[in-house]
Amino acid sequence: MAGAVSSRILKGIGVSEGIGMGSVLLLPDTAELARRHPPAADVRAEILRYRTAQERVWTRFQQAAAHLVRELGSKDGGTLDIFGLILKDHGISQEIELLIGSGKSAPVAVEQVFQRLANSQKNVKNDYLRERFTVWRDACKQLVMELVGCHSLDAALGRGPVIVAAREITAFALVNPPKEIKGFVREVGGSTDHASILARAFNIPMIIGKAGLLVELEAGAPAIVDGGTGELFLHPAPELLEKYGKLSRAAGARLGGGSDSLPAATKDGHRIALLANLETSHGLNALRRHGAEGVGLFRSEFLFMRRTQPPSEDEQFQEFQRTAQTIFPRQVTIRTADFGGDKLPAFLADEKEGLSTGLRGIRFCLAHEEFFRTHVRAILRASAGGNMRMMFPLVPGLETLRKAKAFVRTVMEDLAARSIPFDSAIPVGVMIEVPSAAIMAEALARETDFFSIGTNDLLQFTMGISRDDLALMDYSRSVQPSIIQLIAHVVKSGRRKKRPVAVCGELAAQPWAIPLLVGLGIDELSMAASHIPMAKERIRGLSYADCRVLARQALALETITDIRTLLKRAEK
Q: Is 233 helix (H, G, I), strand (E, B) or coil?
């Protein structure tokens, strides 16, 4: 019986926010498709077949590139340019044809050559460079699919709403996907590869799961993908279908009409500001559509991650200014670049080997003064309209905050001496992401204008786990007693100095956590824009007085199990 199938939740990494509902469509891997083809009987005919396929893929590449420029503009429409260079690389073609000449079929020859090239980058330590191996894989997939007569995502046509699951999803597939596709699940890739970038640009939810994820999926099974939380719900329970169905219908209604621009307030009149997390100015359409009150977290490092050379001061300035002007008079909070650890752009990859694991966030920026000066100048110049805030990531304590503020003051003095306009009163805030900052929140509150709690990193550093470790991701769906205590302390410290406190991590978008966060006294919640309608509906159904009681009860508990039980009761 269909009703006997139990619901399951698979946890991955969300790389493109949004919600998709449909049946699972499993796509075969190109390596498997290539192996099905027998060795070439006629070498000359097989080489000609390869060259014909190459020209056809090249033609489709040109069409796809032109489509992207029309959709995204010349700046971001060049996402596929590197594919053109690969497809026309004579050395690669020569190597493939030599393998065909040795008796390999064209699909197998393509697979072997591109796999070797991909592996040369796959194992590098830098995240950005490691993810570049998917560029080679994307080109390979297109050639193999052309050779075997299986074109991209055509399998989705006429099937109704589907969630496409595959080992890899190519950037080509994201250029103009069939309307039936409501979301993607894949095993290979990362948040800065071309497929993820295009998924975000076109607002298609996408998650990346652990290796072997596809084995756990059942073709045709009903599913929900949440690109904000990285969750994939298989055979979702009726209450989940109802919850996500409401969100989908609300999103559809907004696409056809105006957004809900009214603020979020509890039944007894307590206001909570709902803001959006943003990576580039291309996300502004979703922000307006979903009724966000501003940008609570602009992840500025994404401007750098696809670059072999850092963007100039003017390029950064234009991106920040475009965002601030588009949402004026609503506020935009720019987080200064959060580099370090494995998160380094290509132009800093050479520093990886000698980089201290603790040199991340604001400490990384302070250690790279020339880079940081250009970055801060761009932010300050864009602040001239008066609706911008600046926020420092991973601040460990008061000394580092003071160094960062002093650095900003020197940049301000230079701009003023050159009569370059900027907001001299720009609010400067601190991200609370490490226990040391949370514990010292009272001291930090004296010298900052606002707090924003990054619950993802705070959980990681407090509990000693990696937020990217899929085996431990259940922790990220739980409210740890220690995390509740730290949040409560930060809020209390902020209130004493009348400093607003936001939450911009994953916890902000969890319906079961919102009553607790409201009760703890959080002033702002910043999340994926697609989750804002759900958060508004949730808050409008709450009583602030009841939320305060819930928070006091949660603070008195000592185990995850007890807190889960309390929050489940509050949902009823």
A: strand
